[in-house]
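Dear colleagues,

As part of the handover before I leave the project, I'm documenting each prediction I ran so the next person doesn't have to rerun anything. This entry is a single chain, and its sequence is reproduced below.
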Amino acid sequence: MSLSPEESLEQYCLAQRWQSLEGDSGLFTIAKTEFDKGTDFLAACDLWLKTAPKSWRLQFISASAQPLTRAQLQSALADWPQYAHLATALISQYPATVKGIHPIELFDRRISLYLMFGDAETIFNKIAQSPDLGLANHNKKSIDVWFIGTESPQLKQVISTLCEPDTIVAGNADFDAKAKTATPWHLDRAKPRQSKKTVAILGAGIAGCTAAAALHKRGYQVTLIDRHGMAAQEASGNSQAIIYPKLSVRDQPLPRVNLAALMLASRYYKPFWDAGYGEQCGVLVVPENAKVQQDFVTIGERFGDQDSLVQLLDNAGLCAQSGIAMSSELGLFFPQLGWLPPAQICQQLLQRDSIPLLSADIKQLQQTDGSWQLLDEQNQPVIEAESLIIANAYGCEQFEQTHFLPVTQLRGQISLLSTSEASVGLKTVICGEGYITPAQNSTHNCGATYNKGLFTTALRKEDHCANIEQMGATDNGLGAALGPQNTDSMEGRANYRCTTKDYLPIVGPVPNVPSFLEDYGALRRDARKLIPTLGSYQPNLYIHCGMGSRGLCYAPLTAEILAAEIAGEVPPLERELRLAMHPARFLIRDLKKKRI
């Protein structure tokens, strides 16, 4: 006879174990090979909330090869009335059933659920540190309890690599280390030292503030440093910023990261929308040319059963959803997205967790006695912390440790367009050649230009004209609805994005460049050579930047990736996608292409 969810927990004395947890903060991790209807997860939530210290977090990781839809889950959990209040919270955050890892925060961030949609063996392997089984759990905390509902020897092999001797395993898992099959350049040969759990974050934009919130949740003492006295005064300072969705018919890292990021962002910002910050009005994307239009049809077919994520609309649907007479034949509508005021979001994140912000212009970084010192223009120390995150966008170029990163400072200008009788009816964000937001204070936020090599934040009339032209190019009906605009006294804002060559963010530990070039120099001669050497990294130094014009979308995901890296936790994204954003990727690529 199978055990009930409560009995499964009781046989391992988890109530007593959780009641005895000590310390200011900590993490307890449960993994289960099959999520099924989620009743085991809800039972664990119920017991955790009743017995565990409030300063501790529960992480529950589970795969589902054939996940239920939200409606199916709601129907299945109706048979478990004892979990009704918990089920309501889960269902409200339940994602579209898209393959990949879906991190969900519940119950005031006391419980993290990693829902992994896909084949269990494949996806559990992808959260490991390396495909080499002996390195699968390198420098990571082990999972505390495994519930194994499989007879697959291959899956049990993967599970065994994510265990330590004190891991409780409900089922059998056999360990058999295999020969190395990959170069582990992304793994730090040194074990990070974190006795104090103090972190300084340089930069208080959306990258810095989301990272601060993610680390605070994990019990770290975080301080932000910025040259401004308030958060989000540069690239994150626009009054209206959108969560820009970009899907693709290709199964490559960039579109896969984009999809994972926008799905998490829609959940991450929901409490802010509910509190009146911005508007979850949906984002409508129209094709820029005939090729993109055909791609949209393919994307619509691919996600045809995921209406909560994206919908393919014809012209009638576009007009009804947007509230204006549009001319495009079709478009993609993302109902869970919208716009936000990023400066207010950053300030709310810091205020919620009482995270201090110091005002200083940092010119130099140095490590002394196991800590990082940040020095100002007078070469005076401003703060000292055990770990340091550089999150000051293109400002990372000024530091010796991160000067190697190929980032670009790219100017962008937005324009505030006056509403017309027709445009005031706009109900959703529209994206195409440019983007435009629904009216706020009788203006539409419209943008943005891409001015490479231009270094001024002064507003330029020609850029206002370019933004207006982009609206007409995006959709003729939109241009007609906006009507004539006076650019002579038009307001707006200009600042700089931090972009990368591959359009992906930079998130992770900072490599020791001389050691990297020495250790992996053989890749110049043979790009496929297997080099079993682990990487050498600057101790407790990390970077979080390079988000281009999608910072609002990327930051919740990349902040969680970075915080999990620092805390030694199971990561919230597949390994190949994490490596596609890794700071050392540029060195490895350049070595293989004989550029360095």
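Residues 551-567 form the longest helix (17 residues). The chain has a mean pLDDT of 93.

All the best with the project,
I.
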